[in-house]
Amino acid sequence: MSDTTAALFTVEAFYNAFVTRDFDSLRTAWSATAPLSCIHPGAEPLTTREEVMESWQAILANPQTPEIRCLGPQVMVHGDMAIVTCHEDVDGDILCATNVLVREGAVWKMVHHQAGPLAYVPEFMPEAEETGGSGSIN
After folding, report:
1. Which class for 6: exposed (0-12), middle (13-18), buried (19 or more C-beta within 10 A)?
2. How far apart (Å, rounded) are the C-alpha atoms in residues 132 and 93?
3. What pLDDT was estimated at residue 119?
4. CB atoms inside a 10 Å sphere around CB 101
5. Per-block average pLDDT, block size 10, for the chain (138 residues)?
6. In what order do the strands lie in the sheet with 93-104?
7. One short Pfam family name for this protein (predicted)?
8. Rounded CA separation 60/58 (Å)
9. What does the alpha-carbon distance between residue 4 and residue 94 come to, in Å, rounded to a whole number?
10. Is the model's pTM score more than 0.70?
11. How far is 108 from 102, CA to CA, in rounded Å?
12. According to the model, what pLDDT value does residue 135 have?
């Protein structure tokens, strides 16, 4: 499996865990050893593992949490770090997201997630080959 495919696999697992509200699977997508950070839309940066994991646990436990889809993921591998950018469809609202991963042994693990609103509606959603041309995960 290429680094690009492996990094995309981790991001896909993260979004699938979000959709199924499976906190244990979501936590597994994140590094257990590296420092973590997360910036949820409109929120202050979370910069400790405890803050990041507590935020995800609260989001997944909230019955009001909207559905989400990752659209057009693009993977850039830089040695032992990968950056995956995408658009997120959150109940019809389009956000822009960045996911940063690090290589831990043979797998890629997330260390940062950030999503925020766009000032425009994108006319084109880039399609990634790894998603089979559909341009979305989920």
Report:
1. middle
2. 24
3. 84
4. 30
5. 96 97 98 98 97 98 93 96 96 94 97 93 53 50
6. 37-39, 107-117, 93-104, 81-90, 68-78, 136-137
7. SnoaL_3
8. 6
9. 24
10. yes
11. 6
12. 54
Q: Under a CB-based contact definition with an 8 Å cutoff, are residues 29 and 36 in contact? A: no
DSSP code per residue over the chain? --HHHHHHHHHHHHHHHHHHT-HHHHHHHB-SSS--EEE-TTSPPB-SHHHHHHHHHHHHH-TTPPPEEEEEEEEEEETTEEEEEEEEEETTEEEEEEEEEEEETTEEEEEEEEEEE-SS--S--PPPGGGTTS-EE-
Quote the pLDDT of residue 113.
99
Dihedrals φ, ψ of 92, to 5°? 95, -15
Domains and CATH numbers, the chain: 3-120 (3.10.450.50)
Tokens of 21: 């509200």
